[in-house]
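2.7 Reproducibility. Because tokenized structures are sensitive to small changes in the input, we list the exact sequence used for Carbohydrate-binding protein SusD, including any N-terminal residues retained from the expression construct. No trimming or masking was applied before prediction.
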Amino acid sequence: MKTFKRLLMLLIVVSTVSCGDDFLEPVPTAVLVGETFPNNAEELESVLVSVYDALQGVNSLELTDASLNHAQQIEFYVTEMLSDNTRSKSGEGEAGQFDNFTVQPTNGFVFDYYRSMYDIITKANLVLDNIDLAGEDAATIEGEARFLRGLAYFNLVRSYGDVPLIDGPILISDSEAQFTRIATSDIYAFIIEDFQNAIGSLDVTSTPNRASKAAAQGMLAKVYLTQGTNYGEAQGLLEDIINSEQYALEADFRDVFFNEANGENIFTVGYVASNSLESQNFSAEMLNGVGRTSGVNYVTDEAIAALDEFGGDRAQYSKRVDAQQPTQTQVVKWIPNGDADLGIAETSSDPTSAGNDWIILRYADVLLMHVEAILAGGAQTTSSNALASFQEIRDRAGLADDPDNPDDDANTVTVITRDDLLVERRVELAFENHRIHDLRRFGVAQDVLTAFSNANGHSFSATDLLLPIPQFEINLSNGLLSQNPGY
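Resulting structure tokens (single pass, no recycling of outputs):
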């Protein structure tokens, strides 16, 4: 849950990529805009809080205005459902476009996620453009804003490829900047600069709901791994986190998700139960019988098989058979109404207004990225440092050697292959929106998703590795914004 209080709940109206030429027509009178806001340190802090709000997104079951951004709350559509991890119930509606690999440029989730990321960027830019108001807290505020902006651009470039680069406040007349796609390499350079600044500006925080040095180090390492370069720098960043001893794996995998004040979570998006402004509904969407007769996000047979074979103790806290629909398997990492059989207490009296936080970076991911950095694109490794990180993950999952048979060392890892690492990432981080990005980063997305598509009667092709640019944005650009191939 969030442990910091919002200083001020303001509607901050600023131009965004998705606003278009009709932005602020008529000019609103009930908000502070333009040169009048912000004008002091307190108001600047409220803008910074609004950047976190933008990442948090709006609970669509509480606030039903379709024009609102839902950000993190809908990310599973464009990540997990676009992979071989989850699917819709029967390929229905816009959700079904992801598991069938028939995503259209008019898909509402594609547009929502795109505009949500630019909402984060726009508000972060407003903070950075007024950083001189921050006084002695300037470095920390700048670091947080740049971390959040870097995260938003990282989400965009991985999902859409070349995208417009907005690095400051933008005027309505600046249509060329809003709609000119910039090369992925330049976007990554910009992201790296933001994360590097955050590393130099931030320190330890008392809550994972705010950006920290370790969060920036972990995300920068992931950027380097995604680029397939700077493996040494990535390893160094990850070892800084490991050697800091600020974080550790929870002894019980369940506690990662249901004891949120834990030492494993490095950066999370906080939510507050039964609060129309700060609750979330992805728990209800993922749990088919919770607050709804059916949800939209079910576990695939392939993910079930992987968890059953390789998940160990993690499997029971990652998936379960839906009691109301016994032929379906659901995600259970964010159960808001509890589960007595699994020892999970209720966290929200109304599951459609849940308070379970979303984890963006946790220590287990750091350990697995550490192995990946040491592999450095190679086929396998016997590095003792890599083995130690990998073994720590497996031990927590109950895959250690049999304590009653010390001569049985079958589960002691002596070599790690890229395939081993990809499997371990899948079962450790299942349904946490990593799978599609991992497949792309490991260079196996086309092969894996082709096989998955063929087995399930879908229509995957290589062009499905990127989402389409939203058609709304293309129309708004009057021809300036180009579409990705295949759409």
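Confidence is low (pLDDT under 50) at residues 1-33.
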